[in-house]
Design a protein that fits this description.
By secondary structure, the protein is mostly beta strands. It is built from one helix and 28 strands. Strand 9 and strand 10 (about 125-135) form a beta hairpin.
Length: about 325
């Protein structure tokens, strides 16, 4: 049951075998899968009954009951990907080897059960600490998610600790993915400045962009024209791209739906998250894993380009000395137009 029926409140429950929790106030409701990476699978704006998060077309089975038919070359991330918003750590991107450990697509913590503790529970504020220990690497990660009364966003305070007796490298990122009914061709992405690099998308991908570099928001199209990638494609535009945005002028982005008069924003520390990974699919990704089904975009603050082993070659990774830690803060939520 809810701990109260107005202002800030939370509810603990089990969904498909996963411990989960709702936190909400008068404006927003956020659903967190505690037993699955603390994924945020709902970020609902109550006034318009719009959930910003995208839901994957891949069925989400109880982890204890799904038997994978065969291991994939990427690891298990896709098989257990419900859409929504994931914490990505300590690898971002394809599977890699690190100091004798195999680390799958997008790392460890998105597939781990976390623990949690209620820090504050009042009608004015809910704060919950979530924490986890990685098992192939020697890290401890904790985050405190806070929601305040009459506030249209959540705040996240995070800390990663290196528990080992040696310096350790890692990639850190957040992977929020947006879909209908919020997402449409009426959406505009606002990012201040930045260099853009376009690479091939997932599976068998179609695109209207050359695999090239440019200055945000313009990229050369396949026919030599300039394409404004701040404009979200329509659902049936048949494109699929992965785009990396660097040299950010500020740690902030927003996606605004000009027809619905609402948007979603994220603030992040650009000295740590130096890149935004921009993943967009408008029915343009065929074969495994998406089979021409997806309409979504993701704007993902990341410390590095993929993956960990390649980031180390570029000296692009984060690193922590033995028994040291790193803290960050995020803020994310609804923006009215």
């Amino acid at each position: 049951m809810l701990n109260r029926n107005n202002h800030c409140r939370f509810m603990e429950f089990v969904w498909k075998g996963y411990r989960s929790i709702f936190i909400e106030n008068e404006i927003i409701r956020v659903e967190i899968l505690i037993d699955k990476g603390t994924d945020i699978v709902e970020f609902l704006y109550k006034e318009k009954d719009i959930d910003f998060m995208w839901r994957s077309p891949i069925p989400f089975y109880p982890q204890s009951k799904l038997i994978e038919t065969a291991p994939t070359k990427l690891g298990s991330f896709i098989d257990y990907y419900p859409g929504g918003w994931q914490e990505i750590f300590p690898n971002g991107g394809p599977i890699c080897e690190y100091k004798g450990a195999t680390i799958g697509l997008h790392g460890e913590v998105a597939l781990l059960p976390w623990e949690y503790q209620i820090i504050e529970d009042s009608q004015d504020k809910i704060s919950i600490k979530f924490y986890v220990y990685t098992y192939r690497t020697p890290f401890y990660l904790e985050k405190i998610i806070t929601i305040k009364s009459e506030t249209p966003y959540i705040e996240i305070e995070e800390e990663v600790k290196n528990l080992s007796g040696q310096e350790i490298d890692f990639i850190w990122g957040h992977h929020p993915t947006f879909g209908k009914p919020f997402l449409s061709e009426d959406c505009i992405i606002n990012i201040k400045g930045g260099k853009v690099k376009v690479i091939k998308g997932d599976g068998k991908s179609l695109t209207n962009l050359k695999q090239t570099e440019g200055d945000w928001p313009f990229v050369e199209g396949v026919n030599g024209e300039q394409v404004d990638i701040s404009k979200v494609p329509a659902e049936n535009d048949n494109v699929s791209d992965v785009i990396f945005i660097s040299e950010l002028k500020e740690g902030y982005y927003e996606i605004l739906n000009e027809k619905l008069k609402i948007g979603f924003f994220m603030e992040f520390p650009k000295e740590i998250f130096k890149y935004i990974w921009f993943w967009r699919i408008a029915k343009g990704s065929y074969d495994y894993p998406w089979w021409g089904r997806n309409y979504n975009i993701a704007l993902e603050p990341f410390s590095s380009l993929p993956n960990l082993s390649e980031a180390i070659k570029r000296n692009d990774q984060l690193k922590l000395k033995e028994n040291s830690s790193l803290k960050i803060s995020l803020k994310s939520g609804v923006k009215k137009i």
